[in-house]
# Entry
Amino acid sequence: MREIKFRGKNNEGSWRYGLLTFIFNRYAIAHVENENTVDLIEKESIGQYTGLLDKELNEIYEDDLLDVDYPNGTFLAKVVYELGSFHIVAVKGSIIDYFPKNWNDNVLGLTALHWEQDCTDGNAIDSVKIVGNIHENTSLLEAVE
# Structure
């Protein structure tokens, strides 16, 4: 069974991980260990776990920023949920610039990266590394504009 969990920032700016719920007219994360304990979170910060890991075995979430290795180097990408699954979007340029044979010039499926590269470490994608997220690392986004 796949693991379904979310992350979100609480009012103090700390990340909370667990089950997404709605309580007291606010979004909240219920702790996995104790579902009776919840942390209210900011709606804008909610991101779902993709079920995949980066090359350092860190969990990849929606809105993460990744360094992605491709045949000619590395590029910065954002994790999005689109077309019914998780994809990466190039922060600068188009996915086609980096993966010319991709079927879509806007997105590349995370699972496609995993399967096409014959990744051998379970759910880890050997060619990506989490370098931040869009909520805390806006300087990474500004640096490529």
Notes: The mean pLDDT is 86. The two ends are 40 Å apart (CA to CA). Residues 43 and 107 are 24 Å apart (CA to CA).
